[in-house]
Write a structure and sequence with these properties.
This protein has 5 helices and 2 strands. With 154 residues, the protein is mainly α. The chain has one domain. A two-stranded antiparallel sheet has the order 1-2. Helix 1 packs antiparallel against helix 2. The structure holds zinc ion. Zinc ion binds next to loops.
Length: 154
């Protein structure tokens, strides 16, 4: 719908990335299953290493997806309570549901997985938005570029 809204565009790109990651996760699961069966058929095979490396990939892809989900929430003005996982407004200092205190940096942009960072860096120039009526200066002022480096410890 609101494809001209830069936020919606960003969210859509995150959602696409999650879809890609899920497809990659499925592929890894498929390969793991196949290797396991190959080993079952021929006990002289040892596919442990290959299976483990794919399990690592799945774990990393799932981590990336968690980070992407957080970024989507951030674009929507929301953050997750670390304690009860309920969605809160970015401005909340305490969770509305369980009362847990949010970290001071909890309303900052969450750090994205490295792969996605590169991908979004490619499409980074916010200036060429397809919204010619919108003042470009405003879009630039919102750009939290330097955030990605300072947030690595999260
Ligand atoms: Zn909570």
């Amino acid at each position: 719908m609101a494809l001209f809204d830069p936020k919606a565009k960003t969210i859509a790109s995150y959602q696409n990335k999650i879809k890609e990651n899920n497809a990659a996760i499925d592929k890894n699961y498929y390969e793991i299953g196949k290797m396991y069966c190959d080993q079952y058929k021929d006990m002289s095979l040892d596919v442990t290493k290959d299976i483990n490396s794919r399990c690592d990939k799945v774990v990393n892809l799932e981590k990336d997806n968690d980070a992407l989900e957080l970024s989507i929430l951030f674009e929507k003005g929301l953050k997750l309570c670390k304690n009860c996982k309920k969605e809160n407004s970015l401005v909340h200092a305490f969770c509305f549901a369980c009362g847990a205190k949010f970290d001071e940096d909890s309303s900052n942009a969450p750090s994205l997985p490295s792969e996605t960072e590169q991908a979004s860096a490619d499409s980074a120039p916010k200036a060429d938005e397809e919204k010619p009526s919108e003042p470009v200066a405003e879009a630039k002022a919102e750009e939290p570029k330097e955030e990605t480096e300072t947030n690595l410890f999260v």
